[in-house]
Design goal:
5-stranded parallel β-sheet, 26% helix, alpha/beta, 3 domains, FAD/NAD(P)-binding domain, homodimer
C-alpha cells in the first residue's frame, strides 16, 4: 500500500530514511529542510577551513539530483511551521502536506550564550555548510580568531585553523578541553598538542565581552583566578554546544526530555499524552535516546549514530520490527597530527551517576620503538565492578580503531580479565609487541587488587 | 626459598621468564642459547633489509648488560645436549647444571626442503639476527633474489626487498600467498600489491633446482601447468616454514604432539609417560598449545604470544596459578604500503575441521571519500552458527587495530548481530561514517538469511 511519509530535516537521518524507503517501499516521500544544502558532511567542515580539503562542494557526498531521480519530493529552504498531530498533516510555507508516517529529524542549532557584542560582524557559529562558507569568505591567513568553547567542534576547529597558520585563541569555561568526552588528564594531552600547534588555550575562563564598533576588534576574557585580559581578534566563533531543534515537536504535544530532545522509545517512536505514537518517529540530534552504560537520556551527535537511527526508522516504516539499542556513541576528534577518542563514560560522568570506578592508564607507542614514524599512544580505561565502562585514547594514529574495539568490549560486557586475555597482533611497522591497551588493563587490575 | 631455574633458549620466552623471575623471586636463573644474540626483534629483520631501519643493532631491544646486571646467568653460543629428567639436570658443553624448574623455550628452526643445489653459496634462510646480517652482507641493490615460500616471512621479505629496488621472484608451491592465514581472495590483494611493487609472484609452482657451480646463478621453477622456467638469480632465500626445536625434549621423554611441538597443558607444563610434570614448562615456538576456535593443537609463532606464555610460566614458577588460554594468535604482515592481517580460522581451516561457515565481505576506504590519503580497505568475516570465527583485513592503514578488535570479538563469542550493533567512531581524516567491518557483517547476515 502506498503511503505518505513526511520527513522534517534533510540531514543524515532525513535523507537516509528517504533513500531507504524509496529503495524498499513504494511510499511517497516528502522531505522538508530549512537548510540550503543536503547530504553533506558536517564533520568535514573544519578540514575545508584547514585547507586539506579543497572546497566545500567536496563535502557534498551525494548530488541533489540523485535524490530527485529517486522520486524523493525534496523541499529545501522551506520552513515547516506546525504539525497538526490530530489531522496528521504538516503546515509549511509551501502548503499543507498529509502524512501516514512522520519522521522528525530536524537536528540541532548552536546554543549561543548571551555575550555583550555577540551581534557584531565577525561573530559566527559553525554548524551548517553555509556557516562554513561564510567563515571561509571572512577569514584569511592573517586573521586572529577567538573560538569560544573547547568541545569537539571548537577543539577540532582550533587545530585546523592553527595548522593553516592562523592565530587562534581557544577559550573554555570549564577547567579542561573536551569536558564531555575526556578526563582532564587525557584532555591535557590534546591541550598540549594545540599549544604546540600555536593555539593559545585558555581553560577555566569565560568571555566577558566581544568588543568593536561594527566589526569585532577584540575579546575580553576573564579567568577564574586572573583579571580580565583582552585578546585582539577579527573573528569570533561560538562553539558552546548544540541544542535539539525540538520546538515544533513540543508544540505538537510530543514529549520532550530533560536533554531538550524528543523522547523516543526503542523503536524511535515519539509519545504524546503518555502514549507511544506508532507512526511518528524522531532520530538524530533532535531525538533523545538512551546511553548504554548509565541508561540515562542522551542525545547522540554522531553521523554514524544518525545513519543507524535512520535505518531503524526506515525499517519500522517499511513494516519491520527494528530496534535502536542504547548507544555508546564512540567519538574521535582530529587535532593537527593528533587524534583523541573516547567511548562510554568519563570519570566525571561516573561520579555524577554515583558509579564507583577504577582507572588504568598506559603510555606506549603506535609502532616498535626502533621503527621510524609512529607516535606516542596514551590509553585510559575506566572500569566499574571489573567491567569496562569507558575508554579514552590519544595518539597520532590507530585511535579510532582502538576506540572501536573498546566500544565493542563495553557493549559485550568485557571485564578487566577479558581485556587481559585479549590477544593483539604485532608487526614492527604497525604496533608494539604488546598493545598499550593491555598495559592499561594490567594497571587497572593491579589497582583493583591493591597492588598499585 | 631460592631454587634453580634453568631456561633453554634466550628468545622472547626465555628472557621474559628470566627477567620476570629475577624481579619477583629470589631464584637463581641460568639461561642457555646456541644463538649469538638475545633480546632482539626477529620481526624487524625484513625492515633492516628494506633499509627503513638503519642497522641490525637497532633491533636489539635490550642490551646484554641489563640481563647480566639483573644477575641472570646467561650462556650464549652454548649447546645443551641432553636433559637428565630423572636427575633434574641439563648437560651442556659448559658442564652440568641442576634445576628445580626447567623451562624449554628453544624456539624453532627453518624447515628446509631438499632441493638440488640447496648447498650453493648464496642460499640462505632468514630466522636469526645472524641470518639477517649474512644476507645483508651478500645482497646489493643489483641483486636478483628468489624467495621460496610465500608465508608470512617470505611475503614480508619480498615486499621489503622490492621496496629497496631489488628484483625479487616469490615462488609458492600452493596456489596462493599466505595460505595458512588468508583466504585466496584476500591473499590475491597482497599478491597484486607485491606485483605492483615489482615482485614476480609465482604461485602453484615449486623450485626444481638451484643452479650454479659454487654460487647461485639461477633457479629452475616448475609450475603446476607450465613447463620449467629458469630465473636468473644471485640469492635464494628459503622461507618454507619453521619446525619446533623439540628434539631435546623428545629425547628426555617429554610428549611431542602432531605439530612437532612439545605438548603443554593449560599451565604450559609438559608431560612424560602420561603424567604432567609440575616443574617443567615449554613456551614459544617449540611448544604446542590449543587453538581457540577449533581446540586443535597449535604452535603460535608470534612474539606477543611468546611474551604471554612467558608471563604464565614465570608466574607459575613463582607459585601462582596462571593459565594460558587457547590462542587466536592474530597476525599481521606488512608488505610495502599494505598491511594484511588475520585472526581465527580461514575458510580452508574451517573446511578441514568440517566447520560450515558463512563469509561476509566488504570493500571500503580507511578515510572519508573526499579526504586526501587513506587507502582501500577490504574486510572478510567468517561466521559459523552466526558466531564470528575468523576475520581477515587488508588495507594501507588501520589493519592491526581492526584485527585486534575482531580478535576480541571472536574471544567474546560475538555473533553477527553483535557486530551489527557494534558502534564505531567516525571523523573524516580517520574513517568512513560506517566502518567497512559493519558492512561485511551486513553482507554475512544477508547471506545467512538467504537475501544475498
Amino acid at each position: 500500500m502506498t503511503e505518505n511519509v513526511v520527513i522534517l530535516g534533510a540531514g543524515a537521518v532525513g535523507m537516509t530514511v528517504a533513500t531507504y524507503l524509496k529503495r524498499h517501499t513504494g511510499h511517497r516521500v516528502t522531505v522538508f529542510s530549512s537548510d540550503t544544502h543536503t547530504a553533506y558532511s558536517q564533520c568535514g567542515i573544519p578540514f575545508v577551513l584547514e585547507g586539506v580539503i579543497h572546497d566545500f562542494p567536496d563535502l557534498i557526498v551525494r548530488p541533489l539530483d540523485t535524490f530527485l531521480d529517486m522520486g524523493i519530493d525534496l523541499h529545501l529552504e522551506t520552513t515547516v511551521n506546525h504539525i497538526d498531530a490530530t489531522g496528521q498533516k504538516v503546515i509549511s510555507d509551501e502548503g499543507i502536506f498529509e502524512y501516514d508516517h512522520l519522521v522528525i529529524a530536524t537536528g540541532s542549532v548552536p546554543f549561543i550564550p548571551t555575550i555583550k557584542g555577540g551581534e557584531l560582524d565577525g561573530v559566527f557559529t559553525l554548524h551548517t555548510l553555509s556557516d562554513g562558507m561564510k567563515i571561509n569568505c571572512y577569514i584569511n591567513d592573517g586573521s586572529r580568531v577567538v573560538i569560544i568553547g573547547a568541545g569537539g567542534i571548537g577543539t577540532e576547529l582550533a587545530g585546523s585553523l592553527a595548522v593553516r597558520g592562523i592565530a587562534v585563541t581557544l577559550v573554555e569555561a570549564l577547567p579542561q578541553a573536551l569536558p564531555l568526552t575526556m578526563d582532564p588528564d587525557m584532555a591535557l594531552l590534546v591541550q598540549q598538542h594545540l599549544t604546540l600547534l600555536g593555539v593559545q588555550v585558555v581553560t577555566g575562563a569565560h568571555v566577558d565581552s566581544i568588543n568593536g564598533k561594527r566589526h569585532v576588534r577584540s575579546v575580553s576574557v576573564q579567568g577564574d583566578t586572573v583579571p580580565t585580559g583582552t585578546v585582539l581578534s577579527d573573528i569570533v566563533i561560538v562553539a558552546t554546544g548544540l541544542r535539539a531543534l525540538s520546538g515544533i515537536a513540543r508544540d505538537a504535544g510530543y514529549k520532550i526530555g530533560a536533554t531538550g530532545g524528543i523522547v523516543t522509545d526503542e523503536h524511535l517512536r515519539v509519545s504524546a499524552d503518555g502514549e507511544i505514537l506508532d507512526n511518528v518517529y524522531a532520530g538524530g540530534e533532535c531525538a533523545e535516546v538512551k546511553e548504554f552504560v548509565t541508561g540515562s537520556p542522551f542525545i547522540s551527535r554522531l553521523g554514524s549514530a544518525a545513519r543507524r537511527m535512520a535505518l531503524v526508522i526506515g525499517e519500522n516504516i517499511a513494516g519491520q520490527d527494528a530496534v535502536y539499542p542504547p548507544t555508546l556513541s564512540p567519538n574521535v576528534v582530529v587535532v593537527g597530527e593528533m587524534t583523541a577518542g573516547s567511548v562510554g563514560i568519563t570519570s566525571h560522568t561516573a561520579a555524577l551517576n554515583d558509579i564507583s570506578v577504577v582507572c588504568g592508564i598506559s603510555e606506549g607507542r603506535t609502532r616498535a620503538g626502533y621503527y621510524p614514524g609512529g607516535s606516542q599512544l596514551n590509553v585510559k580505561l575506566i572500569f566499574s565492578n571489573r567491567r569496562l565502562v569507558g575508554a579514552q585514547v590519544v595518539a597520532g594514529e590507530g585511535v579510532k580503531e582502538r576506540i572501536d574495539a573498546l566500544s565493542l568490549a563495553i557493549r559485550m560486557g568485557a571485564t578487566v580479565d577479558d581485556l587481559l586475555e585479549w590477544e593483539t597482533a604485532y608487526a614492527p611497522p604497525v604496533s608494539m609487541i604488546i598493545d598499550p591497551v593491555t598495559f592499561a588493563a594490567d594497571d587497572a587490575k593491579m589497582k583493583m587488587e591493591g597492588l598499585a
